[in-house]
Design goal:
Length: 327
């Protein structure tokens, strides 16, 4: 009989214990951190969607995940960067971040994998080298789908055939905005619609931009979606209703806040899918090799209350195609 040395026995025993521990799910819980706009104690639909997606992939807080470390931003980019440094000082294994705060995390140069949802073009923003091969420790989802920019204008014209001039409300600093503008203007020209372009840098510029659209007698308006525009969407919708301007944008929240219609990514589904990136990285995939994805689920939302205010009749064919009808 072959004799087993003490060292060999101990190594074999420790391996058996480790295998047993893994089999029963008792490995050290993985440590994730979340950074995004919001307030502690206030439910974030984006975070809850990510949590739901993680559960679908077998990751649960209190079992194989430590309680998610939440960091909430509400101030300037510099303040978000300071919070990102505090977050990284706790040594999370992976960071999940969304919106403008993706830039804040990038600026502090983390060494850990970062999974993001970004409203603009992450290549233009310098976050990744390309969508197909990020080449950095960042990967995730870009919510900017340029092909939908033109479709929004087509739908607006279908709904309001009398449109004479289109206003475009945008923020040039938003990565990808020049291409979104170019496509929008090309589609508008094809429909015979002159375009008035009005830009803002921050919400404080909004009154001046809306004043430009009003002076140019625009009766339709496209608002390019980003966090600043969404936060101001109720204000934009109120102006549009008073000025009898038909409005469209890219996220359902704009329609919920009074826009006539929206066509764009289903944000809940997109953030739920973001968990797939987290799952793959936790299981050993390299973020620099995981392609950045565009939205997989698109939704059309129509606001009938706004239509009645504007005296617009929504075609039945559009109602049937809508994923959600408000009012």
């Amino acid at each position: 009989m072959r004799r087993i040395g003490r060292r060999q026995f101990l190594l074999g025993a420790s391996g058996a214990v480790l295998a047993t521990t893994r089999a029963f799910g008792q490995t050290r819980p993985r440590r994730l951190a979340w950074l995004g706009a919001g307030r502690a104690g206030v439910t974030s639909p984006f975070l809850e969607a990510v949590r739901a997606g993680l559960r679908e992939h077998g990751w649960e807080e209190g079992r194989n995940l430590a309680p998610l470390a939440e960091y909430w931003t509400s101030g300037t980019l510099a303040e978000a960067e300071q919070l990102a440094r505090q977050m990284l000082a706790t040594n999370p294994e992976l960071v999940i971040v969304y919106g403008r705060d993706v830039n804040a995390v990038r600026n502090v140069r983390p060494s850990v994998p970062v999974v993001f949802a970004f409203s603009g073009d992450p290549v233009d923003a310098g976050i990744v080298q390309s969508l197909s091969r990020p080449g950095t420790n960042f990967t995730g989802i870009s919510l900017l789908s340029l092909e939908l920019a033109g479709k929004r204008i087509d739908l607006l014209r279908e709904t309001v055939p009398r449109l004479r001039r289109l206003g475009v409300l945008a923020r040039p600093e938003h990565p990808g905005e020049p291409r979104e503008r170019a496509i929008s203007e090309e589609v508008a020209r094809g429909l015979g619609l002159p375009v008035t372009y009005a830009s803002i840098q921050s919400a404080s510029d909004l009154d001046a931009a809306l004043g430009t659209i009003a002076r140019e007698h625009c009766d339709g308006m496209v608002t390019f979606p980003d966090g600043i525009m969404l936060a101001s969407s109720a204000r934009i919708a109120a102006f549009a209703a008073e000025s009898r301007i038909a409005t469209t944008s890219g996220w359902a929240g704009f329609a919920d806040n009074g826009f006539l219609m929206t066509l764009g990514p289903n944000l809940g589904a997109s953030y739920r899918h973001l968990a797939r990136f987290v799952d793959r990285v936790l299981r050993g995939a390299k973020p620099e090799e995981l392609p950045v994805e565009l939205p997989r689920t698109v939704e059309l939302v129509v606001n009938l209350r706004t239509a009645r205010t504007l005296g617009v009749t929504i075609p039945e064919s559009l109602k049937v195609r809508a994923d959600r009808v408000i009012g």
